[in-house]
Amino acid sequence: DAKTTQPPSMDCAEGRAANLPCNHSTISGNEYVYWYRQIHSQGPQYIIHGLKNNETNEMASLIITEDRKSSTLILPHATLRDTAVYYCIVRAGWDDKIIFGKGTRLHILP
Amino acid sequence: NAGVMQNPRHLVRRRGQEARLRCSPMKGHSHVYWYRQLPEEGLKFMVYLQKENIIDESGMPKERFSAEFPKEGPSILRIQQVVRGDSAAYFCASSRAPENQPQHFGDGTRLSIL
Lengths: 110, 114
Fold this sequence. Notes:
Chain A is mostly beta strands. Chain A is 0% helix and 47% strand.
């Protein structure tokens, strides 16, 4: 079973920041938080991952709370192409498999 | 910089036939993973392979399914005597070493069983 909890769906206006929350209250010290997204009919796309520090790349920012029990993925300026299912995943560094939950279906509204 | 390549993108088989799905990992990646996504469901891990070795096949059905990753050439997921319930999207991912490395996915093979 997935070790994360995400809202099933969210809406965001085009051009605004999309903030996707994730709860992982049972996360262990050696587990990372990963985010992927799946745009309809495509394979999952890696977005970002982190251990305890906030991370930023060209796609998004990842904010992890100090107790590491929750995190937020931020898409700074959402576009229609960001419409997808977003998966928050907790995974130990040595884990081979990714366990996908149901994710959050993000709708970007024009 | 080619990503993970899967072929064919679509595959149609009749019940009882064999299906072969191919996956070429990203350049520099020696670890391959297969996942299955049934209609309207999430992705489920099937198997993890390194070159010439199966490392974890805990998600593979016990019968009719096999996977290989030979020294040369792509990884192959083979389904023998296909049944209607095998209809799904099959995704391959690759990574460098598994330790704290993201897996990068291909766009999948959509298998339809008539």
